[in-house]
User: What shape does this take?
Amino acid sequence: MAGSSASLRAYVITRVLLMVPMLLILLTFTFLLLRVAPGDPVSAIYGEKGNPQVIDQIKRELGLYDPLPVQYFTYLRGVFTGNMGTSIVSSKPVIQEIQDRMPATLELTISSMIVASLIGIGFGTFAGTRRDRPGDFGTRIAATLAYNIPIFWFGLILKLIFGLWLGWLPVSGRFSARLNLPPRVTGMYTIDTLLSGDFRAFVDAIAHLILPSLTLGIVLAGFFIRITRVNVIQSMGSDFVEAARARGIPERSVFFRHGLKNALVPVITTMGLTFALLFSGAILTETVFSFEGMGRFVYYAISYRDYPAIQGAVVYYGILMVVISLLIDIVNAFVDPRIRY
Amino acid sequence: MAVGDARGRATILGRFVGRPAGRLFAHFLRESKSAAGIIVWIGIGIVLAIIFMAILAPFLAPFDPNTKVANPETPPGGAFVMGVDRSGQDVLSRIIWGARIPLAIIAVATTISLAIGLPMGLLSGFVGGRLDRILVLVMDSIYAFPGLLLAIVIAAIIGRGVLNISVAIAIVYIPTYFRVIRNHVSQVKQEPYVEAAIALGMPRRRVIMRYVLPNVAQSIPVIFSVNAADSVLTEAGLTFLGLGLPPGIPDWGFDISLNWQRFEASWWATFYPGLFILILTTALTFVGEGLNDILNPLLRKRDLKATVEA
Amino acid sequence: MNVLLEAKRLSVTFETSNGPVHAVKDVDLTIEKGTTVGLVGESGCGKSTLGRAILRLLPENARVNGSVLFNGLDLAILSSKEMRDIRGRNIAMIFQDPMTRLNPLMRIRDHFVETIRAHDPTVRPEEAVERALKVLADVRVPADRMSMYPHELSGGMRQRIMIALCLLFKPALLIADEPTTALDVILEAQILQLLQSIMHEYDMAVLLITHNLGLVAEFADRVAVMYAGRIAEEGATVPLFREPRHPYTQGLLRSVIDLDTMKLYSVPGAPPSLLGESVGCPFVPRCEKRMAVCETVFPEIRLVGEDRRKVACHLY
Assistant: This one.
């Protein structure tokens, strides 16, 4: 027992240390991408109409004329100190924008993940246990349609049906204008309203979250269904399942304790890998639903060629991805005793 | 031992392209009657239909897609089967013409991804060692990054245009090809017959081309179709966000970006383009999945082990 | 009555997309209490399927005909609940590859507790662990292995644990499907020695399914030789080995290297496909002693000689 938790600790430490080179590569890659490319944001905004001397001066101030290694180190230092410049569009520090918007995206991401997991694992298991029967085929086709659907189009349709035609749910924003925002604890309206005891506001926050979560969640569920299905089939056909049946273990236990549990291990890993998809989808979903999170921020940044903002957003996502993949690995090592080296 | 002669080269083509292709096709026809087979045929049918639609656009489209032909936002009916969008253009004509861009992008993006990802994966998997470790680390870092975001950044830098979008999408997908191929290659490399070939002194390039590549080739069609479907969706996403194409070219994604804010007033202008994107990507997925079901059992059974000439 | 298990006209057919595959055809097999019956044959002859058919562990596309009488009770018609009760309690099975037969996410201890409580829910976990420790001692597995996960244990250890799991309820019959094929010779000897002592101690009957004639010669009281889903020959071990009657058995026994001549004999040809219907004796293409009648009429089992050997051959 002591042995296994020590190896778990060793595993976690190793993985955290591995995080560093990965992060550096990501940051460097981002830097190269943004700096080495032709054009620059200042010219992009002012175009030919601007006074070349003014443009030149702004560029100088932004450090765009410094030698590349200097720019690189300034960039890295900026990332680590949290100073990533000021958004050209909003004039707020980029780090501030990230802080303001991150909770929204987190809310959306987490609730979409929950929707996707429930639907995905549920239907995936359903399909896996009814292999090659109508239920299986139907589910697989539905799953294929789900993950091939353009997310923004799907969101628009849901908006149309549930928001405009049926009027059941709100279609934009995170919160109704007529209600008061809760005092900020986490920045996530669902949690903060709950914490402040404002039940009406809580319901309102949830209502605004439903359609965006369904949009992103259902598309993601398409993937999860397939992954779960394949793993359930494989797991239920494995040798230890047969051996368990041979010992007279009831089918229900065989299914849950032997089959499903083992099937979920690779599913969890893969679910972790789909976080990248989640963030991509969030950009589109937030845009469609005017949900003011990081995704929407990226949209603005790109539309206005807001250089520091794009950079900040990319760095933020990069770090988040590495952290999440680390978390997934740790969860995996916790769940599967074979992984801890 | 007949290693490294002209006959050997000719045999590669015959043995690994001609005859297997023939056998594959025969097996394919046989298996098509099954459920997996029907799916593939439906997929192929739809893709071909869309390709024809794109090619024959000048003849099929009732109106010019870029000309105002009626009052903006006229609902579907009469001469305008799918209605008219906010610029007064016929939606149906724009749908028909709009098939060209996604298809072009698929062609270019997947070719670039394959052309770069495949050799890199082959090399990395086969050679192993430090090169492999470094490449894997780099590719994994890119792979972990949200695809759309990466495409956005690249597109924002290199600008709009069909070729540029294709390049952006291609770059995003290279790590996928790399990973799958590289993993498969390292697996195949352990097989006894590859060891034997190397031990017998066969030059490495030849070992890769004759033994490793044909085995690994079975994973390619599947990644290809996933890549293709993804390209369409990514292009649509980019265009939706305002980054993809300059205005003026009919494109399904572009139409959505043009009309989505008027969704309540003229839902048809946004609905149909999106529907066709869905149809194309689903068809591509059907083809890919069907190919997977058919190719994999076949190649497992046939045990694609080339014989070492003694 | 000394008969523990009696299979009568047992047939197993798999419905596949290529057609029906007759893995087991009209097999009669008897196992007496406390005895060991060896079931031998080439790969694909149906012996593993037969073993699984007894415990009804076949996949969904399997169609079973005939009866399997266990102490007079026909297992083929029991409800799934009743059958589940028999598995692990009255009849147990060990498999070929021990490496993949334990749940990787469960500790060894949990495997035992689960098995015990599956048959007797009233047993408390602590009691179950006690019982498990006793059985582990019988198979000579140290007690500290209980808290480990399967991947921490060697193949030999895992196989012993599999055997221990079978012994929990002192089953009357143990079906051993190639129990040592995946192990090296030294381990094989150890496991077999273990099995032998357990057989005596627990007075257990064993159906030893294997392609290893040496094992059978040493451990089995009776031997049944299977070919293409049917029993070719069956009888007491020593007479059968001394004087094999079926041409296939003769071929099998000759397939050992002759140290004098250093020649290896092998039965020419390959086993027939089990797909679809067949006519006549399945061994015909490979039989040196074939006759015209063999091609058209299937030889029913007949009793031959003093030892009342069962042989399915037109020669007799």
In short: Chain A touches chain C through 24 residues (CB under 8 Å).
